[in-house]
Specification:
By secondary structure, the protein is of the alpha/beta class. It is built from 22 helices and 30 strands.
Length: 800
């Protein structure tokens, strides 16, 4: 255990602490373009890593873990505590000063995200979700901190922003929210749609000086996020999520020729598009609330400079209660994503825990206690019928009523004296699990079997997963036959269901399938950015030369870039707790990682820019040996601090993946690189399952990431080193986060804080070219004592 050490932390008086979780500074006017480079304007405070003990105000903290979002004022006029001349200020992702930016924003809802591209070249320069900066998973609300971070990383100012495309599927932005900021702050203060924070009136949120601003409808933004970067020139786009844009919003904008909004109904003019229900126009007029997008189908084609997206089908669902009240309306909405989220709420108390539902479902075919304990069977389907016929989808919610499972208390969670001993209702092992022997002084380790409520949760998860697959497979198959398209793009929150994705890609005879790293609402920002570059209205802005289309999928590594100085200052900040070795040679560094993995250790990797999207893909990852089954419970319980039923993914060399996984008949045509973003679940081949039990789920499946030397050379070389040492061409990979409710690690300080908070369960942290291990803290030194003449001498005023 770390000793509770009191550290001093200073916060400059000129800073204000926003409730959204990042420090803000009073700064010069946002339109002074030349000031950022000439005066050395500082990075946003949530990105700064410096420490100084010359303070004006102090704050006491018991560990270094609280200091991650704070900057020090050194009393000499430099906020960052450095002596660097202002004219030498560097910008990690420095862009040419004549860069014209296109911003895509997912704004005011969950997963607030920004994507920035150069209008000059079409290159994406920066993309990041707000959660990475505020450390609040799925954080929503305004975009002030994201815009400021983006501009500071690029060394640009607000007047470099030429065009902004945005979406908020709850309600309009330009005529409603940003003309009535007071109302928005009131709404957010109540926790409606997003979090409680300041910054709504900030110029970096409103961007009032940017003339060219437009809103893009929700499903169309999803479609652009996939089609614009697909590795093929034509195909089918299927968007499925919880809910999208309202029909009235799109209808009003189209009828009124609103130049600040572009949606599907604008595209549908003069086209034959199937609507379900077919009388949606009259139903929407009569509805108390409105009807929202549920599932949409498009076709697309593209050339060097042209991207054409054509709507084919749209199904709408009625709002039966206002979705802003609670649960996003998923209690009684009728989309595939909404019903699945209803199951997530019933099991876990969180509509956005659908990944847990997917991981729980395969346990349905498992048994415990020599087959005497099995999950019950739900005979009647929750979802059935067809999506492409009026009233074709049938929904039975009878298994998701009454007391939610996450809140149910069962007798088997208590001992004979009435004391609760099973605090994790869904914590259980498979029947073959053999617990490790207890160490001296510890209680005897036992195998966990499911509680009664866990068995019921397994049954519900299995039923809704199976029904989702059945209905979605029929839906996509139907439109493959209707359109004749041979390639498939998937987007929308349902496309995070890797089990469904795997079946769609293998079983429906598509030649190629593309799923972006961010099919959920964070990807809406990328779609909006793509529309700003290549959409129908881009030519109306009078561009002399339109940017070339993205010729291949974007790199997922688009987050902030941190410098050597950032890393050094982060290490200095926590130096008393760290043993640091600089290993410049990559081969030697990889050898050290492999040695640790082979010995059974857990290693965290922090390398370069962070991944965009919910999956860790080797830049912010925790790695382990896939051959050691006992690591499943160890990492779940001690590293991730979560239920042990949850599976782990492998990162596998793409060229070897076909020998280990069933990837379908067309996998060889793409070099077996079928899942570069961990988007597809496949079956582990029968003869290989015993070799990689830590990444083989209870049903023999695995949600894999395929790694190529072209896309991620350093990670490929590391896995190759492990392959050379073990004969296994993959490592166990899970996201680098260990603290409850926090997203994936972002800054170097986040990395060290997360590493130390693992309390030794992560043996090693690779931070750039540094190999870091934890050491026991010297309490006397931390309190300020010094060694003089061999004796420890207390300071006149010990640190407290």
């Amino acid at each position: 255990m770390l000793a509770p050490i009191l550290l001093l932390e200073a916060v400059r008086g000129a800073h204000t602490f926003g409730q959204h979780g990042s420090l803000r500074t009073r700064r010069q006017g946002p339109h002074q373009r030349s000031d950022r480079r000439s005066t050395g304007h500082h990075f946003p405070l949530h990105l700064t890593s410096s420490l100084s003990h010359r303070t004006t105000r102090s704050r006491l903290t018991s560990t270094p873990f609280d200091l991650d979002l704070y900057e020090i004022y050194d009393g000499d006029g430099n906020d960052d505590g450095s002596t660097e001349d202002a004219s030498e200020q560097s910008y990690p992702l420095s862009a040419p000063s004549d860069t014209r930016l296109v911003l895509g924003l997912n704004k005011y809802s969950h997963d607030t995200t920004l994507c920035a591209a150069s209008l000059n070249t079409g290159e994406v320069l920066f993309a990041c979700s707000k959660e990475r900066l505020t450390r609040k998973k799925h954080d929503g609300g305004n975009t002030a901190s994201l815009v400021e971070t983006c501009l500071d990383q690029l060394g640009l100012d607000v007047d470099c922003i030429e065009r902004v495309v945005m979406n908020n599927h709850h309600h309009r932005i330009l005529p409603f929210v940003e003309s009535n900021v007071d109302h928005m702050e009131w709404e957010e203060g109540l926790g409606i749609n997003a979090g409680n924070e300041d910054g709504y009136s900030d110029e970096y949120n409103l961007l009032s000086g940017v003339e060219n601003k437009i809103e893009l409808s929700h499903h169309l933004a999803h479609a652009y996020s996939a089609a614009s970067q697909s590795p093929f020139d034509s195909g089918l786009i299927v968007v499925m999520d919880g809910m999208g844009e309202t029909y009235r919003t799109m209808k009003r904008a189209a009828q009124g020729k609103d130049t600040t909004y572009f949606g599907d109904l604008n595209l549908c003019e003069g086209m034959e598009v199937q609507f379900v229900p077919d009388d949606i126009d009259s139903r929407a007029r009569e509805s108390y609330f409105d009807w929202r997008e549920a599932e949409s189908v498009y076709t697309f084609s593209k050339s060097e400079k042209d991207l054409n997206i054509k709507p084919v089908f749209k199904r709408f669902q009625e709002e039966k209660t206002p979705p802003t009240l609670y649960n996003h309306g998923f209690e009684n909405m009728d989309s595939l994503g909404a019903v699945y989220s209803r199951a997530s709420s019933h099991i876990f108390g969180d509509w956005n825990a659908c990944g847990k539902v997917m991981g729980l479902a395969p346990w349905k075919e498992h048994s415990w206690d020599n087959a005497n304990m099995v999950p019950p069977t739900i005979d009647d389907p929750i979802l059935s019928g067809s999506l492409y016929e009026d009233d074709g989808l049938r929904i039975d919610r009878s298994t998701m009523v009454g007391q939610p499972l996450f809140n149910r208390i069962d007798p088997d969670m208590f001992d004979s004296d009435g004391n609760m001993f099973r605090t994790k209702r869904y914590d259980f092992d498979d029947d073959e699990y053999i617990p490790p022997p207890a160490r001296e002084g510890e209680q005897v380790a036992t195998k966990q079997i499911p509680t009664k409520v866990a068995l019921d949760a397994i049954s519900l998860a299995s039923r809704v997963q199976s029904d989702l697959e059945t209905v979605a497979m029929d839906f996509v198959r139907h439109f493959k036959e209707e359109t004749g398209e041979s390639n498939l793009c998937l987007a929308g929150g349902v496309a995070l269901n890797s089990v469904l994705n795997g079946r769609l890609s293998r079983e429906l005879d598509f030649e190629k399938t593309f799923i972006p790293p961010y099919p959920g609402d964070d990807g809406v920002a990328v779609g909006c950015c793509a529309y700003g570059l290549y959409g129908e209205l881009s030519s109306s802005y009078g561009d002399d030369e339109q940017s070339k289309l993205w010729s291949r999928p974007l790199s997922p590594y688009q987050g902030p870039l941190y410098t050597e100085q950032d890393i050094e200052e982060a290490i200095e900040w926590a130096a008393p707790w760290l043993n640091v070795e600089v290993v410049e040679d990559e081969t030697a560094r990889n050898d050290a990682i492999v040695e640790e993995l082979v010995s059974g250790g857990v290693v965290s990797i922090y390398d370069g820019r962070s991944e965009m999207g919910p999956r860790a893909l080797g830049h912010r990852s925790i790695l382990a040996d896939p051959r050691k089954k006992g690591l499943v419970r160890f990492i779940n319980e001690f590293v991730k601090k979560r239920e042990s039923f949850r599976p782990f993914a492998p990162s596998c060399l793409a060229e070897e993946a076909g020998d280990w996984f069933d990837l379908g008949q067309y996998a060889s045509e793409v070099g077996f690189n079928v899942s570069p973003y961990m988007s597809i679940t496949a079956q582990v081949r029968e003869g290989k399952r015993d070799l990689i039990p830590a990444v083989t789920h209870v049903d023999g499946s695995s949600r894999l990431q395929t790694v190529t030397p072209e896309a991620e050379p350093a990670y490929h070389r590391l896995i190759s080193a492990f392959f050379k040492a073990t004969g296994v061409p993959m490592v166990l990979n899970t996201s680098f986060n260990t603290l409850k409710s926090e997203p994936i690690t972002e800054t170097p300080r986040n990395a060290i804080r997360t590493f130390l908070s693992s309390m030794g369960s992560i043996e090693m942290l690779i931070l750039g070219n540094r190999v870091i291990k934890r050491k026991g803290a010297d309490v006397r030194v931390l309190l300020g004592e010094e060694r003089i003449g061999g004796e420890m001498t207390p300071p006149p005023k010990p640190k407290r």
